[in-house]
Amino acid sequence: MALAQTSFFSDVLGLSCTMNVILPQQTKRQIGLEGKAAAGRFPVLYLLHGLSDDHSIWLRRTSIERYAAEYGLAVVMPAVARSCYTDMKVGHRYWTFVSEELPEIAGALFPLSDRREDTFAAGLSMGGYGAFKLGLSCPDRFAAVASLSGGLDIRSRFERGQVMPLAETESIFGKKEEAVGGPNDLFALADKLAGLPAEQQPLLYQCCGTEDFLYDENIAFRDHARSLGLPLTYEEGPGEHEWGYWDAQIRRALEWLPLRKL
């Protein structure tokens, strides 16, 4: 695998940005990791970070490079600050950036496939919310998306105050009455997705540790998705909101993706 640490300019955000990109590389003499790469443009996973992290965190806390190597999978890891992957009420248009501009820039710089069947997203916590938002909002572009311990219910952001202060929540989503039921509400997006034919719905993978403080809202989203008949795979087990759990689960998520090992 090759690692590209990339700085680039975003017209949408009006500022310089960073992303880490893992790329399959065919090698013969690499010790400890077999270099595999299929011909043509690579399938791609957009791997999203959590609230307190940045584009470097997946490489620092997990073995994502080693896991992705088995599949010849490119992994794009952008930085989006504390934006909740949203066009913020007061702030930058990070949703437009990650859903529209980032794939265009990454695809222009690297040999990434733009076919739906080769395009996936995953993330943890805030990034789990972002990954599901990509799949539910852009089902024509994502074949499968995965949420690890996702913050999936924006209603809880207004009620609990334990993830971020209410003032910060409102600077991102606006007031609760305008946020709930809108384009940032995964429950409302799931309702819309259910109206599409089954073959047009992306596959959903959701997991959460039973000791995680976000467990209740994960159960709420799981039950809602199941009531709609969405193609959801749900797994739970012992675990808190921590990297040991996510390192194990991102490997499980890669195994679940509709990819083949090379």
From TrEMBL:
InterPro entries hit by this protein: AB_hydrolase_fold, Esterase-like, Mycobacterial_A85_antigen
Gene Ontology molecular function terms on file: acyltransferase activity, transferring groups other than amino-acyl groups
Protein name: Esterase family protein
Top-level taxon: Bacteria
Originating species: Paenibacillus albicereus
